[in-house]
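TL;DR need structure tokens for one chain.
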Amino acid sequence: MSTPVPSTPSPSREKVPPAAPGGPVVHPDLDERLLGLWQQYGQTLLVVVCLVLVFYLGRAGWEYYQAQQEAGVRQEYAAAALPEQLKSFVAAHPTHPLAGVAELQLADEAYAAGRAADAVADYSQAAGILKGGPLAARAQLGLAMAQIQSGQAAEGQAGLQALADDAHQLTVVRAEATYQLASLAASAGHPDEVQKRATQLLQLDPSSPWTQRAFSLQAAAAPAAGSAAPAGISFKPGGQ
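>> reply
TL;DR here they are.
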């Protein structure tokens, strides 16, 4: 009777678990690789995450602080009603836009009181702080008029002309500057210049009150010059 020969076992092979239908093949050493990567880079990753959190928390805190500061400045400006209080506010916040508004208020008061030199200084300061926008244009217009009032006629007229010629300015600002030039021409007895400015206003904004006033100046200036108003110019209120 023959002795059965034991079969030689085949070399062991790593069994790969079947892949889920439609899914990737999962290798048994994937967990070990992930663990190795975590051991190698995990601490660095945690540091990066902490730095990002610190950055965003710090920025949020700074924005909150800035908002609180801004609210405080606005409250302080609202409480400044007297000239001395406005001056104190400007001294405490010299670069804040509201300091420019405060300077504009001081300039208006000085101009109305006939203190031309103070008005020139305050309007100039306001224009420097505000830099741009309608309030800055108003400061520039006030500065030009204060310069004229203080005897700096050439500087004031140059400022008015710059505003009148600036296509980027608001139409109402350009119209007022042009009218003021017409008014100066009428005061100097230059009817041709008044007519020129009235024509410019008619082209700029026919319905503007400044245009109506300029044509009134022209009508008043023409008899004084011994000539009738030009027939080629007509004006109808409202642009109709």
